[in-house]
Amino acid sequence: MSGGGPRDGGTGGAADPATDEALRALAEPRRRAILRLVACDELAAGEIAAAFEVTRTAVSQHLTVLKNAGLLTERRDGTRRLYRARPEGLAGLKQFLDDMWGESLEVARRLVEAERGIHDGDRSAEAG
Amino acid sequence: MATDGQARAGTVTAMRRPPVRQSTVVRSDVGHTFDTFVRTIGAWWPVTLFSAGQDRVRDVTFERRLGGRVYETWADGTQVDWGTLRAWEPPERFVMSWRITSAATEVELRFTALGPALTRVAVEHRGWEALTEEQLAADCALSGGYAGGSFDRGWARILACLAAAVDGRPSAGDGA
Fold first, then answer.
1. Which is deepest, A18, A50, B51, B135, by most CB within 10 Å?
2. CA angle B156–A62–B104, rounded 5-degree value
3. Residue B107 contacts residue B125 (beta carbons within 8 Å)
4. Predicted TM-score of the model (pTM)
5. Which chain A residues have a beta carbon less than 8 Å from that of B61?
6. Which of the listed CATH numbers 3.40.470.10, 3.40.250.10, 1.20.1250.20, 3.30.530.20 matches domain B20-128?
7. Bridge partner list, B67
8. pLDDT in tens, A15-53
9. Cβ of residue A5 closer than 8 Å to a chain B Cβ
10. All domains in chain A, ordered by first residue
11. ipTM > 0.90 for the complex
12. Which residues 80-119 of chain B have a CB within 8 Å of chain A?
């Protein structure tokens, strides 16, 4: 049985809204670039804007999206706002990958066992 | 397995590097399990996010040899490569390079006989840490010219790959 026709909806998208929001936040190349910039160094909003040679206003919208998606932390230092990537925000993505492969293995497992006439409902009847 | 010795002093993020690992136990012998996984790859491989064709895929072909291609074929005959086999050792394991837009990672499937009708199947999805600086610089170029700077290997790269894949998903009227 080869791929063809719509796939089962189980892997049709992110497993939860938070991960979905993170993925959408990452869909914009400029936001990915911002995250890479602050993955290792905390930077002020002005420094981030300067790195891209754009205005503060242009970058602040991206910062807000990233912050709302849980991918960025903001801290105030006097009048400055400092940003760095938030590793916990990426935890959802790792979970997404774990779930993605977990689901794939489950689909494959059932295919193999079905060929042997075994179905999950039979588990309780297994002699072990 | 993957060491994190590359963490720089003073880095803000300290996430451990992937790989992604999952496993399951299948109630069949190892030979049949291996063979069925290969034969039905089009049905279970997690392509939804990353496939070029998605619902347009008519078939998936798996060339069963070292260096063999794995590719999807669309209804209109278009072929799109998923990757190539870097290891082919039936019924114990195979390794496939897997291109996710501009990045290539690697997926290993290992099949271990636990008994005459019981097989463990383990998947490891790795290679995120091996992405070259050039690939990331190319990604930066696409995003408007920012180049240089420091970025964390590991999750910064996985997020770049995932995000690029999200970005590359076909939308109405748009080719991959």
1. B51
2. 30
3. yes
4. 0.65
5. 2
6. 3.30.530.20
7. none
8. 567 777 877 787 777 887 888 788 777 899 999 999 988
9. yes
10. 17-117 (1.10.10.10)
11. no
12. 117
